[in-house]
Design goal:
This protein is α/β, with parallel strands linked by helices and 192 residues long. It contains 5 helices and 10 strands, in the order ββααβαββαβαββββ. It is globular and about 40 Å long.
């Protein structure tokens, strides 16, 4: 059975973006240092957007994921950059009750998010990558099987939390961690 994996960058204080919800990629609190880029290319090259993959000469299927799930606000970051499908190499789903279709290759899920994820998990294939945001992650929390947190050495005080919603308790146990030279720690947890 496929797993739903929340693979996301975070600050030490648990935020995935600044309060404005803008693109956190390369922000001073999420620096894209050479070791971070090398780690992503080696371990999760399919998580790079299509234009970055093309610029780096990366092609072919994903190593870990073949499907990407994201919320409307995360998707709109790509739209603002002119990308109606930032991940054309993956099956791309956007969860939104209000978004109109921007690209026929991107599936818009308007309701029953948990049911759709359960259907995807029952299909053959590689794992499902939950890219964000915090509100979608919170709504899918009962189905998240693994957390891969790229924990940066920054504290920003407020912003978009990893899980943005009302209190609910779920336990995960540590699997492993990798410390990169830049100070980013990649933490892997599986559902307990």
């Amino acid at each position: 059975m496929r797993r739903l994996v929340y693979y996301v960058a975070t600050t030490l204080d648990g935020y995935i973006a600044a309060p404005d919800g803008g693109d956190p990629s390369g922000a001073e609190f999420f620096p894209l240092t050479p070791d971070v880029i090398a780690f992503i290319v080696e371990q999760y090259p399919e998580t790079l957007p299509g234009p970055a993959r093309a610029a780096m000469g990366i092609d072919g299927p994903g190593k870990v994921f073949d499907t990407v799930l994201e919320g409307r606000a995360s998707y709109e970051i790509g739209l603002a950059a002119g990308l109606t499908d930032a991940y054309p190499h993956l099956h791309h789903l956007v969860f939104s009750t209000t978004l109109e279709s921007q690209n026929p290759s991107v599936e818009i899920v308007r309701s029953n998010a948990l049911d759709r994820v359960r259907e995807l998990k029952a299909e053959e294939g590689k794992d499902l990558w939950l890219v964000g945001g915090g509100t979608l992650a919170h709504s899918l929390l009962p189905e998240i099987d693994r957390l891969i947190l790229k924990q940066n050495r920054s504290v920003i005080g407020s912003g978009i939390p990893i899980f943005n919603g009302p209190f609910q308790s779920h336990m995960f146990h540590p699997v492993d961690e990798t410390l990169l030279d830049s100070g980013m720690r990649v933490l892997r947890y599986d559902r307990a």
